[in-house]
């Protein structure tokens, strides 16, 4: 199974970027691609991607970069310690990937996109920069999905 | 588009900072900065329909959305002068059990236990002890399944509405949860034995505990607000006793009870209500070394394990007697009034108050989460705890203070380490 998971909080401005990409992909993705959305506890990813061969994640990023900047990542590379976000009751995406690796619960191929957000105010819409990035990531991911399909076919 | 190494992919929950002021070798002040989203949501709620808070406030926290939904429903129903019948109340309690199971399993296994075992994080614990972490995730999964079956999905449940539920789960759906919940109950018993074997520093405190109290059951969804200092009030009387005030060093408001600091959360719930746990759970708690109260915050992990066991047990009991409420929700028409709601989130008492106009518009909203209620007591504890450990290296002291903060399971999240420990020596020296 090929799975696309958009991650984010729909009520927190640019944090919804991953969800926006997932919704665009759902409209246009090849039929064999499953698209889901995840808001909240990211540990749920460990179950969400169980059984999937190839998984693409899209999430908002808050790293002080220019809003709308797009980052590509591939979880084949171990994430360095400085990306482990340790809080008191939440796990970041980087944490969940590393936990999945420690427990041998990562899918065969796991990669994705981060979109740098600018505003995370409750109730705010996506900013124009992130809106443009959502379109760019959607186009790039659709290309990847089609290439993946042709490889598999 | 750039192609660089993985940046900080993170939920946006702000960061915590801790400042400890040392004068003449004595800790004179401990200041904890906790980010608090509910304050922003209060403004967002004004002008919205009275039916919307359960969905909107569920977005405040990815770990305890049910708590927000339940306190919100209770407050709005109170304003509108209705009380859903018992079958709906029981289904709410069942949903809430799912959240307690999820939240306590996450905190015990991946956030708190690593501290006691000398691991930097749950990831490091998982590398050395995958079977233990698998057990924790298996328990959490049972909570997820319960949330999905009753709430419609495991995070931010969509089946909750003012007046009850959109749809009552089919009995067969809940019967399918019995096996995973029985496994979770067995795993929770093992969890309790495991955490009871940890080493705990001597740090008993003289707390004023605050929690809900219900005449017949261990409090989850409703009750009177009771304290070990003699308070015994309804949620409607909350504002007459509890005061929130702004402090310069934090975005979270600080709460006091008639001018006094207090603690809410599992230790408070347990210490006030341990006699209302089923007899066999009380016995299991005794065998794990707990008395009828718990005053050492480091031992809160044992209390969470007891509550985890209780939540599994309670969920099985509620499923055993389940009959779908018909209808799944009662009609709730708007009334120009103010309503109050209080429930026990996994990390403590969560208060909601809404003022609604006659046409059903929300004129005012107030939400007081447990983390801000506990902020003063966390600071007081940290001040005394750090005072005994000033001889430690900065790194070690930071580690131990982080562990101390985690005793209260607050909402703090940030990069690498959540605390930026700043030791401020006496400027006159």
Task: Summarize this structure briefly.
The complex is a heterodimer of chains A (153) and B (429). In chain A, 33% of the residues lie in helices and 22% in strands. Chain A has helices at residues 17-28, 45-48, 93-102, 128-152, and strands spanning 2-7, 33-38, 54-61, 70-74, 109-116.
Description of the structure:
The complex is a heterodimer of chains A (153) and B (429). By secondary structure, chain A is of the alpha/beta class. Chain A has a single domain, classed as 3-Layer(aba) Sandwich (Rossmann fold), CATH 3.40.50. Chain A is 33% helix and 22% strand. Chain A contains four helices and five strands. Chain A has a five-stranded mixed β-sheet, covered by helices on one side. In chain A, β1, α1 and β2 form a beta-alpha-beta unit. Chain B has one domain: Orthogonal Bundle (Cytochrome-c3 Hydrogenase, chain B). In chain B, α4 crosses α5 (122-128) and α8 (178-196) packs antiparallel against α12. Chain B starts with 16 loop residues before the first strand and ends with a strand. Chains A and B meet through β3, β4 and α3 of A and α1, α4, α5 and α6 of B.
């Amino acid at each position: 199974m090929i799975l696309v998971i958009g991650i984010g909080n729909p009520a927190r401005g640019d944090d919804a970027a991953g969800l926006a990409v997932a919704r665009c992909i759902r409209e246009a993705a090849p039929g064999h691609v499953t698209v889901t959305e995840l808001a909240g506890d990211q540990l749920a990813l460990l179950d969400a991607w169980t059984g999937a061969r190839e998984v693409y994640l899209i999430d908002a990023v808050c790293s002080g970069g220019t809003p709308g900047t797009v980052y590509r990542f591939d979880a084949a590379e171990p994430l360095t310690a400085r990306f482990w976000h340790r809080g008191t009751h939440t796990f970041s995406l980087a944490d969940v990937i590393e936990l999945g690796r420690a427990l041998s619960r990562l899918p065969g191929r796991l990669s994705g996109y981060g979109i740098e957000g600018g505003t995370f105010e409750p109730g705010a819409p996506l900013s124009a920069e992130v809106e443009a990035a959502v379109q760019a990531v959607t186009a790039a991911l659709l290309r990847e999905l089609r290439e993946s399909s042709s490889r598999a076919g | 588009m750039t192609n660089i190494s993985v940046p900080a992919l993170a939920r946006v929950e702000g960061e915590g900072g801790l400042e400890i002021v040392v004068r003449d070798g004595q800790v004179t002040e401990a200041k904890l900065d906790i980010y608090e989203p509910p304050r922003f949501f209060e403004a967002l709620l004004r002008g919205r329909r009275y039916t919307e808070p359960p969905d909107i406030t569920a977005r405040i926290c990815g770990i305890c959305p049910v708590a927000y939904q339940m306190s919100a429903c209770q407050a709005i129903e109170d304003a509108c002068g209705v009380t859903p019948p018992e079958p709906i109340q029981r289904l709410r309690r069942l949903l809430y059990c799912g959240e307690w199971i999820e939240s306590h399993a996450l905190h015990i296994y991946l956030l708190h236990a690593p501290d006691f075992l000398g691991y930097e994080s749950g990831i490091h614990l998982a590398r050395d002890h995958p079977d233990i972490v698998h057990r924790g995730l298996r328990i959490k999964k049972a909570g997820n399944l319960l949330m999905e079956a009753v709430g419609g999905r495991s995070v931010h449940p969509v089946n909750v509405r003012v007046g009850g539920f959109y749809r009552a789960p089919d009995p067969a759906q809940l019967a399918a949860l019995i096996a995973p919940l029985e496994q979770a109950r067995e795993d929770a018993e093992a969890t309790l034995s495991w955490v009871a074997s940890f080493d705990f520093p001597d740090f008993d405190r003289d707390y004023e505990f605050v929690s809900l109290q219900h005449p017949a059951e261990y409090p989850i969804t409703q009750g009177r607000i009771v304290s070990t200092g003699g308070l015994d009030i309804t949620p409607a009387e909350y504002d007459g006793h509890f005061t929130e005030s702004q402090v310069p060093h934090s975005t979270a408001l600080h709460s006091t009870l008639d001018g006094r600091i207090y603690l809410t959360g599992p230790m408070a719930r347990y210490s006030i209500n341990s006699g209302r746990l089923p007899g066999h759970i009380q016995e299991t708690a005794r065998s794990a070394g707990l008395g009828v109260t718990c005053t050492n915050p480091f031992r809160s992990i044992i209390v969470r394990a007891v509550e985890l066991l209780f939540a599994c047990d309670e969920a099985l009991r509620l499923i055993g007697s389940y009959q779908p409420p018909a209808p799944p929700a009662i009609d709730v028409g708007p009334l120009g009034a103010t309503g109050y709601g209080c429930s026990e989130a996994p990390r403590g008492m969560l208060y909601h108050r809404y003022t609604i106009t006659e046409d059903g518009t929300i004129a005012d909203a107030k939400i007081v989460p447990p983390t801000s209620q506990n902020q003063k007591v966390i600071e007081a504890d940290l001040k005394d705890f750090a005072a005994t450990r000033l001889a430690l290296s900065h790194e070690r002291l930071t580690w131990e203070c982080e562990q101390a903060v985690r005793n209260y399971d607050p909402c703090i999240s940030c990069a690498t380490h959540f605390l930026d420990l700043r030791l401020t020596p006496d400027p006159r020296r």
